[in-house]
Amino acid sequence: MADNVLTVNIVTPDGLVYDHHATLVVVKTTTGDMGLMANHEPVVAPLMIGEVRVRRVDNPGHEDMIAVNGGFMEMSDNTCSIVADSAERARDIDLTRAEAARKRAERRIEEAKAKRDQDELQRAQVALQRAINRINVRQGRFGK
């Protein structure tokens, strides 16, 4: 393997979602976006709901997009391992389902506000963030 290559693995409770060699991976951590290349110092970071962008070795002009809903990332020995609550590759996202989830979450937010139910409001806001993340990843919109 070349010196400028790292392995990117994304795993969820349902199993392996992504496994490729890359020159660059960008993740959304709780402190901001983090770009990782081969030979990066070891690091562990918690992830936000957001996209993971991977520049693959076999297709350098293209970035794979993966919608990730929380979890953490560990970089060590030229392997970037992401353990996520859930993750979905852009090509696998059903846009119609994601839009329906966004609308359901927006309705739930309005209902929770009307009832002044803070717990339900918080859950609905997270559901909305996840739906918007999936929509943005499917449509190729970064960091929206």
Automatic annotation (TrEMBL):
Entry's localization field: Cell membrane
Q: Which residues form the ATP synthase epsilon subunit C-terminal domain?
A: 92-137
Record key words, sorted: ATP synthesis, Cell membrane, CF(1), Coiled coil, Hydrogen ion transport, Ion transport, Membrane, Transport
Which Gene3D superfamilies does the record associate with it?
ATP synthase delta/epsilon subunit, C-terminal domain, F0F1 ATP synthase delta/epsilon subunit, N-terminal
Q: How does the protein's chain sit in the membrane according to the entry?
A: Peripheral membrane protein
GO cellular component terms, semicolon-separated:
plasma membrane; proton-transporting ATP synthase complex
Give the InterPro entries listed for this entry.
ATP_F1_dsu/esu_C_sf, ATP_synth_F1_dsu/esu, ATP_synth_F1_dsu/esu_N, ATP_synth_F1_esu_C, ATPsynth_dsu/esu_N
Give any Pfam family that matches.
ATP-synt_DE
Q: What is this protein's function?
A: Produces ATP from ADP in the presence of a proton gradient across the membrane.
Please state what the protein is called: ATP synthase epsilon chain
What is the organism field in this record? Lacticaseibacillus camelliae DSM 22697 = JCM 13995
- By which gene is this protein encoded? atpC
